[in-house]
Amino acid sequence: MRLAKELCTENDQTYFVFDGVDGMPEDAIIRLLKVVRELTSSTENDHFVRRILIFCRESLGRGIRFENDQRYSSFEIALKHVEADIHAFVDHEVTAKQDARSLIQSRDLLDEVVRVLKANSAKM
CA angle, corner 53, sides to 19 and 7, nearest 5? Predict the structure, then answer.
């Protein structure tokens, strides 16, 4: 927390990014949310801007929410929103790797690998 506060006092705009929060134990999520709330509670003289992004697969994992607090916004990014991007990424990476060196001699097998990667993209 001390480091976060120092960052905020040194910079007018500070961005914090927390990824993979759903993989944390519940007590660690609760501690993280306490820090987030401390960082976002403003005082009259506070002119600093803080942006905090929290990424997780579920809504903070264990039903923990920022309900009834207008300082926080949450939104869901569903697979349907990013599926085309994931498929384009798979196509690009396989093509780039295949161009650099032959990954798989059999085009049918390579196509099957790409199909399986795309079919399982929800797990990425």
Answer: 100
